[in-house]
Write a structure and sequence with these properties.
This protein folds into two domains: 192 residues, 3-Layer(aba) Sandwich (Rossmann fold); 168 residues, Rossmann fold (3-Layer(aba) Sandwich), CATH 3.40.50. 42% of the residues lie in helices and 16% in strands. It has 371 residues and is of the alpha/beta class. Helix 1 crosses helix 14, helix 8 crosses helix 12 and helix 10 packs across helix 13. It has a seven-stranded parallel sheet, sandwiched between helices. Strands 10-9-8-11-12-13 form a six-stranded parallel sheet, sandwiched between helices. The chain is globular and about 65 Å long. It has 14 helices and 13 strands. 43% of the residues are buried.
Length: 371
């Protein structure tokens, strides 16, 4: 049997958040599997279709694909490119969409279509997103759930949440855990770097309401009432998210540092230098930063929501997202207990080694072959 995959590469033209990082790592892992012949190249062929643009060219250079063919096609960009042009070029292939969205013409045709639905956060936290984003996903997600041949998602928790809304898709929803850093990335080669020269907790994520930045700031205030500790906040606000209003208490003016989006090497160096990662989200389908931190030897504090409990198991310290005092207590417990830090590092490393992109893509290929 021969399988020809057409991969929707629109993600390369989008700001880099968890969804786009997932897609990049997924494609890179597939390429490595094809090069190594762990996926037989005589049976599998893949083409990555991308819109034209200088920023796309730079992203392709970074991916450095060797087995997957790259085609820069079309004249438009964004939704127009994805909905109107991509279906024409990939019409004779299994269309793989890794970023929540798929073209209507492909869904309505006999063409096999595979879609990763990362989460339904636009339904659960509509106030976090722009009106255009809400409208687009409200209209297209039901069609995807009804018509896609296979729907991948990133956790058992999210699969359950999806099926509560779309029970008719039960036989087509496949939970497959994601990896963290690209499998070939040499983490040992990147040294720790402290951006402020003092002990700090790290927070990583988009500046959106569901990431609970208000809770982190309140916890930072409570922690600093007992002992001095800085907080470094990594992440930006892509246009799909609504702006959030953050009030920084005067007592934290010199303790909280917003550094924006950083490249992977810098982020890894921060993970390695931090006292720990604090990640008290209200809602996640899986959550990349906790796994990224564990792979770098950084202890992790996460909220006790189902997806993060599923993903982190006993390798994290837990808090309640709605209760900043529990976040603060977790931070104080962590930074003042060297034995706890080491225990979390060991368990985190074991978990990170088990969750790889290679395993994730191999499971996805089995799904694609059977749909």
């Amino acid at each position: 049997m021969h399988y020809s995959l057409g991969i929707n590469g629109r993600f390369l033209s989008q700001p880099l958040t968890g969804v786009q990082r997932y897609a990049r790592c997924w494609v890179k892992a597939l390429d490595h599997l094809l090069v190594s012949e762990e996926i037989v190249r005589s049976s599998w062929q893949a083409t990555l279709y991308v819109p034209k643009g200088a920023h796309v060219k730079a992203a392709l250079t970074e991916l450095n694909l060797k087995a997957i063919q790259i085609k820069r096609v079309g004249f438009s960009k964004g939704y127009l490119w994805e909905q109107l042009e991509l279906p024409i070029y990939a019409r004779d292939q299994v269309l793989v969409n890794l970023g929540n969205m798929a073209p209507i013409p492909s869904l309505m045709s006999p063409q096999k279509t595979v879609v990763t639905i990362h989460d339904l956060s636009f339904q659960k936290f509509p106030e976090s997103y722009s009106r255009l984003y809400q409208l687009t996903y409200t209209l297209l997600t039901p069609l995807i759930m009804a018509r896609a041949d296979a729907i991948l998602t990133v956790s058992q928790t999210e699969a359950k949440a999806i099926l509560e809304v779309y029970p008719q898709a039960k036989s087509r929803v496949h939970p497959i855990p994601n990896g963290h850093w690209p499998d070939d990335l040499d983490l040992e080669a990147i040294a720790p770097m402290n951006p402020i020269g003092r002990p700090f907790m790290l927070a990583v994520g988009t500046l959106s309401a569901r990431k609970n930045l208000t809770g982190i700031l309140k916890a930072a205030e409570l922690v600093n009432q007992q002992q001095s500790l800085d907080f470094v906040m990594v992440g930006g606000r892509p246009s799909i998210y609504q702006a959030i209003q953050l009030e920084l208490p005067a007592s934290l003016k010199d303790r909280v540092h917003f550094v924006g989006t950083v490249d992977d090497s810098t982020l890894i160096s921060y993970y390695k230098a931090a006292q720990g990662l604090v990640y008290p989200s209200f809602y996640e389908a899986s959550g990349l930063p906790p796994l990224e931190a564990m792979a770098c030897g950084c202890p992790v504090i996460v909220s006790d929501i189902p997806a993060l409990v599923e993903r982190c198991s006993d390798a994290a310290l837990y808090c309640q997202a709605q209760a900043p005092e529990t976040i603060a207590n977790g931070i104080l417990q962590l930074i003042n207990n060297l034995e706890l830090q080491q225990d979390l590092r060991v368990k985190g490393d074991q978990l990170a080694q088990a969750l790889t992109w290679k395993n994730s893509v191999q499971q996805a290929m089995n799904v694609i072959a059977s749909c």
